[in-house]
Every structure is written in structure tokens, then in C-alpha cells.
């Protein structure tokens, strides 16, 4: 016979929040009201710290039998919570804050409507997406394994993130990355690397940056990888290889004009098909990629710097994360 008390148990939400990124008072009020309206139990509140940005805290939420976990903060908080929820089946709800909000943008989730974002936890629909997993090897042989939701990068983009002012990000948002690029230009040199796809033959390549994507949209709405989908079981790769004095202009034409403008219409796509391919941007697809560099290079995951790496092994974990989104979105 079933235990009557077990049958009476109300579902419970957990909120993992970054107190620096969110208005805690407004967040508590929105979650409390939504939980009461849905007749859920008392919400579990868990605050991130510098020592634990989310992964360990999520373990607490799982042990306390949370039925859904809201990640309230920037991309770093969302990435850390997703890493903790990997393969758990417990839905993640994104309450966007910070500058990038990369996964929220790629999934077209609410960015400024707090009530709608919170309501998704209690009335939304579940969507299954992939996670990217990167094993990072340091110069001393030490390794770390981390998940990413949107993009991992080595080269210029990682240097840009390292050199971007935190104060400027708070003041002007994603535009601060332009300043980061300017600060990175003096260090700009091609990176010679060797790579292999899906366990195949190792090849050599010289790039300014290589980005491995689970999704395709960058801050500012720039579409870097037009074929990337967060639930297709593969990773998309963009290698930026500007050649000669006009190389970066060609890269910009590809990303901003072709991907951002022409692909939005049938006529534009015909123009792309008839145009000469831009050799300064190389696209690849894979489920597994291994990278080796001659000298340690900066590496980033979802817009956060992860130090220097001498090699990186990255693969897709298909269907590893459940994201709860607003109903009908």
C-alpha cells in the first residue's frame, strides 16, 4: 500500500542565485508568488560563492529532492548549475542576468521579464538539449573537466574575455568585449595547432581563434554558426583564419552580413549559394574533437576564462540537460 504522506508531498523548487548579479529581494518575491500560485512546497534557496559558483550547490538541491532548479545569474552561474544537473533529468530554469545570457538568447527565452522567466519553473514545458564537455590539460599535466552550454574557445576569443574589464561589462554590457578585443590585438598571433575529429587522423591548422559550439549565437545577436542546434547531437566548429590585410573584413562579412542578414530570407540564401566561399572562416562538424597547441593558450567556456591549456578534448553529451521553458515558446 502506498504511503499517504509520500502521496501528499508537494513538488519543490530550488533557486541557485548569484547575489552579485541579481536583485535578491525581487527574485524572492517573484518565486514565492509563483510557487504559492502553483501550490508547490517551500522553495530551497542556495547562494553561490567564489569557491562554489554552482556545481556543488546543485548537489545540495538534488539531495534535498528539488523537482526543478532555477539558475539566477550570469552565464557563469547558468553553466555551473547545468554542469551540476548533467544527466540528472532535473529541469533547469534560466533566470537571466549579467551581460551575455548566451543560452537564454539561443533558446529565445525571456531576458528582461522576471515574472515570465520564473513562471516557467512551475508552468513551463521541458526541452532536452545537449551539453558540450571539455577536458582541459594544463602545461604541468593536470586536467579538469567542465561542461559548457553554448561555446568553448581557444585563441583570440579567450584572450578577449581575459582582457575585458569587469567594471566596463557592468556599465555597458556585451559592448565591453570590443574593448577586450582592442586590448588583445597586441597579443594577436596565429595559433598553430593539431586536431582530430571523431578519432580520425590528426591534421594541422593555423588559426587566430577556434570556437566549438553547441549553439550558434554570440553576444549582440551575431550568428557565428548558422547550422548549430543545441539538440542535434553534434558540435559545430568555426575556425577564424584571416589571411592578409583584409582578412578580418572577410570574417566580419561572413558573420555579420551573410549569417546575420542574408540567411534570414530565401533570396539572401540564394545569394550566399552563388557567392564565393569565404576562406577566412572554416566550418566543421563533429561529435568529438581533440586539440593540441605548440604553446599554452587561453581557453574559455561560455564567456568565462578557464586559464591556459596545452590540449583540450571536447565532446558532445547528447540530451544531457533538461531545460524548462515558458509554455508555447
UniProtKB/TrEMBL annotation:
Q: Which domain of life does the protein's organism represent?
A: Bacteria
Family per record:
Belongs to the diacylglycerol/lipid kinase family.
| Cofactor(s), by name | Mg(2+)
Q: Which residues form the DAGKc domain?
A: 8-138
Protein name per UniProt: Diacylglycerol kinase (ATP)
Enzyme Commission code(s) on record: 2.7.1.107
GO MF assignments? ATP-dependent diacylglycerol kinase activity
Q: Which UniProt keywords apply?
A: ATP-binding, Kinase, Lipid biosynthesis, Lipid metabolism, Nucleotide-binding, Phospholipid biosynthesis, Phospholipid metabolism, Transferase
